[in-house]
Structure formats: C-alpha cells, structure tokens
Design brief:
This protein has 118 residues and is mainly β. The chain has no helices and 10 strands. The protein has a domain of 81 residues: Cathepsin D, subunit A, domain 1 (Beta Barrel).
C-alpha cells in the first residue's frame, strides 16, 4: 500500500524510492500510460529504448516521443513499466501503471491511497 497527499494546488502526489533517493510523483488520471520521468534519469535507470509513440495531450496536441522499457520498484515489488523521458523534474504516474491497484483520492482530507488488488 502507498499513501500520499493532495498538494496545495490540488494534485495527488506520492513518493517513490529508487536510485537511493526519494522522488515526488504526481498521479495523472488523464494519462493512460505508465510513467513520464525526467530526462536526466534515463541513463541511471538503465531504460531500454523500445521505439516511439504518438501521445495525445489534453488539448488535442500530438507529440512524438521515444518510449523505453524499465523495471521500477513500486508498491513493494519491481514492476515492468513503459516510460517516456522529458525535460524537467516531474514524475507522472499514469493509470496503466496502476492497473492492478485501487486508487483513492480524498480531496477533502487531502489523502491519497494506492492499494494492490488481488
């Protein structure tokens, strides 16, 4: 189980631990992929390029991105994931990464809960 908070601007966030550090990650329920990760982590994560993908952003804008395969610790296990790498410092978690989990966001109490479902 992973717990997190809704930040001051209303974004659900959790923390992830990998590469010996703690990283803040935002849950993006409008993103149906696995992960978007800062470009600077491409090498350290040992991600393997697996072609490209066309992503459609919220405003309908289409962008062509390289996609990568990697293994990432998540909720007590190492999960296979597909990620894109972008400039910046934000990690986005998409709904596909949560496909075996229940996500609960309580905007009133500012609590986030991600729980694996059997």
């Amino acid at each position: 189980m992973i717990s997190g908070t809704v930040n001051a601007i209303g974004v659900p966030t959790i923390t992830l631990r990998f590469l010996g550090k703690t990283w803040r990650a935002m849950i993006d329920t409008g993103f149906n992929g696995d992960l978007e990760i800062p470009l600077e982590l491409l090498g350290p994560l040992g991600a393997k390029r697996r072609g490209s993908i066309t992503s459609v952003l919220a405003g309908g804008q289409q962008v062509q991105e390289d996609r990568y395969r990697l293994n990432l610790p998540f909720d007590g296990e190492v999960m296979f994931a597909v990620a894109t790498f972008v400039p910046g410092q934000e990690i986005l978690i998409g709904t596909h990464l949560l496909r075996r989990h229940r996500l609960e966001i309580n905007f009133v109490t500012k609590d986030v809960l991600i729980e694996r479902v059997s």
